[in-house]
């Protein structure tokens, strides 16, 4: 499943390539609480189709009405030849009317009929797994883009908007089976591209999650083939050291933002010792390994364990420092001490 940003840009590009009028709306600034962060985008086609979101829904409804308005005092913009800035939530009454949180204000940039060729360039760079910086001249509406080496915060001035788009986040699961199906399902709903690797046909033949790619090669080969980057997570779920360890060996050497393996505290410690003794991994590389994986939520069923695992992956993805007290190992240690 594509990320929301990619879906918005792809749909907008298709509309424009078909010659249909459409706008791209970007959240460029927020004050106080806001439903969506800076950089959030939505596209609106003249016929009324919408993809993406810049608020909880009320602002979208107002933009649809304004875009379809052809005359009168309620028309929000008179000049569609250049981008327009709109601000919602300046007063308490307006914030309440548009469903904004108390004190919330957002500023939007509206681009009219973006160039389909320029949008196609952004999508091509994203498909090649580049970070992309898209720039918009606020006087002319001309947009251009280029590959970026590091992500940059959205920046808007009197002359230009610059916003970074990243390729989709990826999740490589080592091992098929029921737990992998639940993890893959949650990951897909959160915009990850999901690949499941298992060379054991008996474990993969009943795979039933649409949208996840299935490969049957050896896990270490598949890790190398996917060229893990800072938007890639790799999770070993087979419980088989012959499969998990070889995949982890390659994953821990990579730039993947998350590398984890299922197992008990004892199994996790044994795994770390094997990796240190038998493989050419540095202590820093071994320290990247998450395990036991997941946040402690008292999970018992495969579905609950999948929620726990994906909660940790998403927290790491979003740069959240998860307190040690929420880790599975920490809670289990405390429980043993209490019962001793």
UniProtKB/TrEMBL annotation:
Domain XdhC- CoxI stretches: 15-71
A Pfam entry, by short name: XdhC_C
Protein origin, superkingdom: Bacteria
Membrane-spanning ranges: none
InterPro entries linked to this entry: MoCofactor_Util/Proc (IPR052698), XdhC_CoxI (IPR003777), XdhC_Rossmann_dom (IPR027051)
Residue intervals of the XdhC Rossmann domain: 171-313
Gene3D superfamilies the UniProt entry points to: NAD(P)-binding Rossmann-like Domain
Protein name: XdhC family protein
Organism for this UniProt entry: Alcaligenes ammonioxydans
């Amino acid at each position: 499943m594509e990320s929301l940003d990619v879906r918005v840009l792809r749909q907008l590009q298709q509309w424009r390539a078909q010659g249909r009028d459409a706008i791209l709306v970007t959240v460029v600034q927020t004050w106080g609480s806001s439903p969506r962060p800076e950089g959030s985008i939505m596209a609106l086609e003249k016929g009324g189709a919408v993809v993406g979101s810049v608020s909880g829904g009320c602002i979208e409804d107002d933009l649809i009405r304004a875009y379809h308005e052809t005359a009168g005092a309620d028309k929000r913009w008179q000049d569609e030849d250049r981008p327009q800035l709109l601000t919602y939530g300046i007063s308490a009454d307006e914030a309440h009317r548009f469903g904004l949180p108390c004190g919330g204000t957002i500023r939007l940039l509206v681009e009219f009929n973006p160039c389909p060729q320029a949008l196609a360039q952004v999508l091509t760079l994203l498909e090649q797994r580049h970070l992309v910086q898209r720039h918009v001249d606020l006087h002319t509406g001309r947009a251009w883009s280029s590959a970026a080496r590091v992500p940059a915060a959205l920046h808007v001035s009197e002359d230009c908007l610059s916003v970074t788009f990243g390729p989709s986040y990826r999740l490589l699961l080592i091992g098929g089976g029921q737990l992998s199906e639940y993890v893959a399902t949650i990951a897909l709903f959160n915009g990850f591209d999901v690949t499941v690797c298992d060379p054991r046909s008996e474990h993969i033949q009943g795979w039933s999650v649409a949208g996840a790619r299935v490969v049957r090669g050896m896990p270490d080969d598949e890790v190398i083939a996917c060229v893990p980057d800072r938007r890639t997570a790799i999770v070993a779920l087979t419980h088989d050291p012959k499969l998990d360890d070889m995949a982890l060996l390659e994953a821990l050497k990579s730039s993947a933002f998350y590398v984890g393996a299922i197992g008990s505290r004892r199994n996790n410690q044994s795994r770390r010792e094997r990796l240190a003794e038998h493989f050419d991994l540095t202590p820093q590389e071994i320290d990247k390994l998450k395990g036991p994986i997941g946040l402690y939520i008292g999970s018992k069923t495969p579905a609950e364990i999948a929620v726990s695992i994906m909660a940790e992956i998403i927290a790491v993805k979003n740069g959240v420092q998860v307190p040690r007290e929420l880790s599975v190992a920490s809670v289990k240690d405390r429980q043993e001490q209490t019962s001793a």
